[in-house]
Design a protein that fits this description.
This protein is of the alpha+beta class. It is built from 8 helices and 6 strands, in the order H-H-H-H-E-E-H-H-E-H-E-E-H-E. It has a 4-stranded antiparallel β-sheet, with helices on one face. The protein has a two-stranded antiparallel ribbon with strand order 1-2. The radius of gyration is 25 Å and the shape is elongated. It starts with a helix and ends with a strand.
């Protein structure tokens, strides 16, 4: 028969996994490197470490420090967060995922110590922050930088078409260098693109204009 304490431990672990999954699912939908499984495991592991810190290492007749292991979770989660932060050209990506991993660790610790209200409230606030601010950023037109290279055959006409395309897509031109090479012109450009625009979509639209060998990089 399962003891009441064992049931309590299971409840804490399940709560941590479920709450971590909620935040992980949002990251999964955004196609981030730290997604559903990563957030579940971080929250679950943090909960178990907290349970162990509170119960497993008590010694009769001695003063124990229940925060000793839990404190290592707070500092130790940094290595996972650092692994999600990557530099893409002029932009740095992964900071939000690193922050969610840090928050999920705290949620797991809260669930592990049976602080369910705090764990649930933090989960809801984190989700509200991620979703609502992402929508706000989209409304404000958040941009990222891309490097674009392609070949032109009809230089003057195609440049006008490209500028019109950029204007229609709310793309700002940071640098636009044109180099003559035989019958063709090679273009190297740095552009500021709204986050909602997929680079592959931009390449397809350039191809529709007859632009050859269009390549996009971060």
């Amino acid at each position: 028969m399962i003891a009441d304490w064992d049931i309590d431990v299971i409840v804490r672990l399940v709560a941590a996994a479920v709450l971590g999954a909620l935040i992980g699912w949002e990251r999964e939908l955004m196609n981030r490197s730290a997604g559903l499984r990563t957030h579940i495991l971080v929250s679950l592991g943090s909960a178990l470490f907290t349970i162990l810190s509170l119960t497993a290492f008590r010694e009769v007749g001695k003063v124990n420090d229940p925060a000793r292991i839990a404190a290592q979770v707070v500092s130790g989660i940094g290595f996972l967060g650092a692994g999600t932060i990557l530099k893409h050209g002029a932009t740095v990506r992964g900071l939000t995922s690193a922050a969610t991993l840090w928050v999920v660790a705290a949620i797991g610790m809260a669930a592990g110590s049976a602080c369910y209200v705090g764990a649930l409230a933090t989960t809801l606030i984190a989700l509200l922050t991620l979703v609502s601010l992402r929508m706000l950023e989209q409304d404000l037109g958040a941009h990222h930088y891309l490097h674009l290279e392609f070949t032109l055959e009809r230089r003057s006409k195609q440049i006008k078409e490209i500028k019109k395309l950029f204007a229609d897509l709310n793309i700002s031109t940071i640098k636009f260098d044109v180099h003559k090479e035989g019958d063709h012109s090679l273009v190297s450009a740095t552009i500021s693109v709204p986050d909602l625009i997929n680079p592959l979509t931009l390449v397809e639209k350039l191809n529709d204009l007859g632009i050859q060998n269009a390549e996009v990089s971060s």
